[in-house]
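Colleagues,

For the teaching module next term, I've prepared a clean inverse folding example: a structure given as tokens, and then the sequence designed for it. I'd like students to try predicting residues themselves before seeing the answer, so please don't circulate the second half yet.
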């Protein structure tokens, strides 16, 4: 009789799915922060101070960090 043992993973599959969702939300937040520069370095662009880059993007990144922390602390049902 062969006793094949399953490898012991640190988390369940749902934890990894939630972790990947959290990482995707963090990536989305960083994408929202990008841009806003001027093509001419001598001309200042006020586009870097709009709502999307100052308020929305950091909030999305923090929510993503919260999701990843939740995925780490989520306990198994077993």
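(Answer key — instructors only)
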């Amino acid at each position: 009789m062969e006793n094949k043992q399953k490898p012991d993973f640190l988390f369940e599959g749902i934890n990894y799915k939630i972790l990947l969702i959290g990482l995707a939300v963090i990536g989305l937040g960083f994408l929202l922060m990008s841009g806003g520069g001027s093509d001419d370095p001598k001309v200042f662009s006020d586009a870097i101070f709009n709502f999307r880059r100052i308020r929305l993007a950091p909030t999305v990144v923090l929510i993503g960090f919260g999701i990843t922390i939740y995925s780490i602390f989520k306990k198994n049902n077993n």
